[in-house]
Specification:
Elements lengths: L2 H29 L3 H30 L8 H34 L1
Helix pairs in contact: 1-2, 1-3, 2-3
């Protein structure tokens, strides 16, 4: 894996990790009924996820054009981070909505 590919893969890991980290913070805020903060954190999470997804799309586009990347454990790890972040953000959004419903019932 050359330096350019390494930089792309590390960016994918970083953005996916940032997305999940923001979602963790969003869920913690929702648990405290701070739904405005939860919304802000989920917005940041989704922005980081878009960056990660754009990186993945770039890799897929390059491969479809015949410019194959070396498949390494680090590349597989980056894809794992992205899929984990996508799943976590989806579940987090559902949990935030449940906390909102619970807060409404408790009023």
């Amino acid at each position: 894996m050359n330096d350019e590919q390494l930089q792309v893969v590390m960016g994918l890991i970083m953005n996916a990790g940032n997305a999940k980290g923001e979602a963790v913070a969003a869920l913690a805020a929702a648990k405290e009924n701070n739904f405005s903060e939860a919304e802000e954190k989920m917005k940041a999470a989704n922005e980081a996820l878009v960056e990660a997804h754009n990186t993945q799309t770039g890799l897929l586009t390059a491969e479809a054009s015949g410019n194959n990347s070396e498949v390494s454990l680090l590349m597989v790890h980056s894809q794992d981070h992205l899929m984990n972040a996508i799943s976590y953000l989806g579940l987090t959004q559902e949990l935030i909505e449940m906390y909102q419903r619970l807060a409404a019932v408790e009023k």
